[in-house]
Request: fold
Amino acid sequence: MSAVDVIERSRIWPSAMTGRPVPGCCRFCGTAFRHRVVDLGMSPLCESFLRADQLNRMEAFYPLTVWVCENCFLVQLEEYVTGEEIFSDYAYFSSFSDSWLNHARRYVDQMIDQLGLTSENRVVEIASNDGYLLQYFVQRGIPALGIEPAANVARVAETKGVPTLVRFFGVETARDLVLGGHHADLILGNNVLAQVPDLNDFVGGLKILLAPSGVVTIEFPHLLRTIDGNQFDQVYHEHFSYFSLYAVEGIFAAHGLPIFDVEELPTHGGSIRIYARHAEDTTKEVTDRLLALREREADAGIATLGYYADFESRVRETKRKLLEFLIEAKRAGKRVVGYGAPGKGNTMLNYCGIRTDFVDFTVDRSPHKHGKFLPGTHIPIFSPEQLWEARPDYVLILPWNLKNEIMDQLAGIREWGGRFVVPIPEVTVYP
Ligand SMILES: [Zn+2]
Reply:
């Protein structure tokens, strides 16, 4: 019996794994929420950028309260806003980050080697965005299909030669694809699992779409890094769930897709990439690095409530430190501007109550955001050229996971004595 089989047999779930999640209950196993990890107050949807003519209107704010399920240890938010409302016209274009494109290209090369993919195989990416990744499979002659619910970004993918189905993924979409002769030898999903409100429907769809000896790879920020690294700004309404290896193994095994390998990645402040196969496929061995990560999580106590107990107090201290820095900087007459307009930035700014009283404006490389305003805080978003005109004393880097790339790009601010501020894991000023 392999270690995966042990996991499969040792957990018994209290509710049927079908049907929509019930409000106030775990979206995987149905247990009622009783243990709060952190309350980040009320926040607007982090991608709801405002036009100037919307600034005087009412904005919708929803609670950002994170729970941990005492049964399966899935860390999660309640679904206050449906996935359809959030993702149908999403403003996030993956191709605007150089380091993310490099990450995608490396993944494609690695998978082609590792799985021996040829023009006879088929790759399906779920939440394929603007074709940032599948374009590299297409360039190497491997048939690829993107599935992406946001029509605006899917159109961009089509211009790169990436066929894209504009649809949400789940059991129904998977069945339709299989009926059309579309089994997949490789199914991948990068930073999509967190965004799935109905997890059981999504993973159930993977089971249907995967070819008998196929592989699923899924990447997501690793909960162990989120908690240990104080990365509370990973929490926003678009991220319904926050996964440890422990929780995700339980979910995938319950759907007949045991995980046999895992890789740790530096992306998004520390992610993992899991590899799953059919339970019936005995050709893929459980790897040592999977066993090692399981053990590290167990040592940290990831499946105990105690592990989550002091996160909230650390988050509150981070807020006090960031405000302390900003208050001192403003008292000294310094000028502070932001860099980036990522989802995590909006959690940070709204939770801390930072508006144009502290940060004059922020800049972003994505032209789709220029001239708009951050939700809730109403900080204006300009193109990066504005930063060179303003000559700020401090640049607050909101996508701190890309801080090295950004500090390289903006090295020139040192000419006028400009410095960088990174808020996570704790407030740090870089010369
Ligand atoms: Zn649960």
